[in-house]
């Protein structure tokens, strides 16, 4: 999709950054690993994201499913243990990938924004919020893993 390798080409992506949780007023470091699958016969792409937050023993897992990929638009489904399954809309330009989720009945909103960098990696910014004023802000960067990296 518009030359993006992240999400649209199979491979592994690594990342790092910080998470700000407004309820604890603390900035936590994290590392992430994305496993991007091949597009299947139905035109869908599966991606699994693992997140390790410094100071927490449990690894978080997010499962994404991209579908209805058409031009610069796509649908994105996110599933994890804490939220269940949510469906959002995504958009790509030549330099950006972005998607948002809105679950008005649950009072949940979220967006993620990835900006392509000259080295082929991405700067990323994400924000999630709930009606009980719980807000999460995530900033970081991701890059494609090549065979020689661990």
Précis, in short:
With 150 residues, the chain is mainly β. The chain has strands at residues 11-21, 26-36, 45-53, 60-70, 73-80, 84-92, 96-103, 108-116, 122-130, 135-144.
How many domains make up the 3D coordinates?
A: 1
Measured between the Cα atoms of the first and last residue, the distance is 28 Å
Largest sheet: 10 strands, antiparallel, barrel
Q: Could you tell me the strand content as a percent range?
A: over 45%
Looking at CATH, the homologous superfamily is Calycin beta-barrel core domain
Helical residue percent band: under 10%
Per CATH, the architecture is Beta Barrel
| Envelope shape | globular
List the helices and strands and how they pair.
Blueprint: E1 11-21, E2 26-36, E3 45-53, E4 60-70, E5 73-80, E6 84-92, E7 96-103, E8 108-116, E9 122-130, E10 135-144
Antiparallel strand pairs: 1-2, 1-10, 2-3, 3-4, 4-5, 5-6, 6-7, 7-8, 8-9, 9-10
């Amino acid at each position: 999709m518009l030359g993006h390798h992240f999400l649209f080409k199979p491979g592994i992506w690594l990342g790092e950054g910080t998470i700000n949780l407004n309820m604890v007023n603390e900035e936590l470091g994290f590392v992430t690993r994305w496993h991007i699958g091949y597009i299947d016969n139905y035109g869908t792409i599966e991606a699994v994201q693992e997140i390790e937050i410094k100071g927490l023993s449990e690894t978080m897992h997010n499962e994404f499913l991209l579908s209805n990929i058409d031009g610069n638009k796509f649908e994105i489904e996110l599933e994890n243990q804490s939220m269940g399954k949510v469906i959002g809309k995504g958009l790509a330009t030549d330099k950006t990938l972005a998607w948002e989720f809105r679950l008005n009945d649950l009072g949940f909103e979220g967006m993620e924004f990835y900006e392509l960098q000259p080295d082929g990696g991405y700067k990323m910014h994400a924000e999630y919020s709930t009606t009980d004023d719980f807000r999460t802000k995530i900033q970081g960067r991701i890059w494609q893993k090549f065979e020689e990296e661990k």
